[in-house]
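Quick log. Single chain, no ligands specified.
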Amino acid sequence: MLRTFRAPFRHLCTISLLGALCHSAAAAPAGCKRDIVVASSQVGRAMTVGADNTVRGAVRDFLDLVSERTGCRFQYAPVSRARAWMMVASGRADIMPAASQTHERDQFAQFVATHQVRPMLISLDPSQPAVGSIDELLRTRLHVAVVRSYDFGMAYRNAVGELKRQGRLHSVTDPQAVAALLESGGVHTALLPPSAFADAAELNQLAPRLQTRALPEMPHMRIGFYLSTSSLDDADRLLLQEAIRKAVASGAYADAMRRHYPRWALADVRSN
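-> predicted structure:
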């Protein structure tokens, strides 16, 4: 009797195992053809790069979710913010996260929006003269810090250009350098989104002293991922584009931001 049932049993097990494997293979996401290179730089709490080059933050949480849903694997390449865009534009990297959308960038990469932000005046001194517009800012003697790789559209670029002409612009590499200038009194105010300043403010214990003011001429700008059109083939780019859009629509990016940002730092943020 044992001989009678042993072979059919083994055959049945083989069929069951193959069925399970086939089901698993069918359920698994297809993934991208290769690892996707993410140009990674310090962008507030959206993306932090540790001393060991480990990337964390809202972007990392979000891309981990995209990886689970698509099967695509992401390789993080720590670089400066200015170099991050150069790598994507030249095809040496595939994705630039947490980037503001501009017409110039749209010529080299596909943009997928996650949210919108606007630059605001940020200062530590409540006794400073109230500034309610760009024109008022340009008529003051206030020295202003900006992050040199940031771009928030024509009104922002015009204001920065005029401040530079007047000799009152301090262009620095990152928000941490902005915090150092504000704390030392090297500048009176800074022009950047509070969400981009959150990490530097918390590290330097500046948050309780911050004063923020919106400028009506500075509209909200779309922020998101740029996908390189030169390094990614059409299939992988479309797969990532659709996965990112669906995850954003489900609220996944907003959830990641709420986990990583203090409430005050989201004053400039609105949904896409």
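DSSP finds ten helices and 13 strands in the chain.
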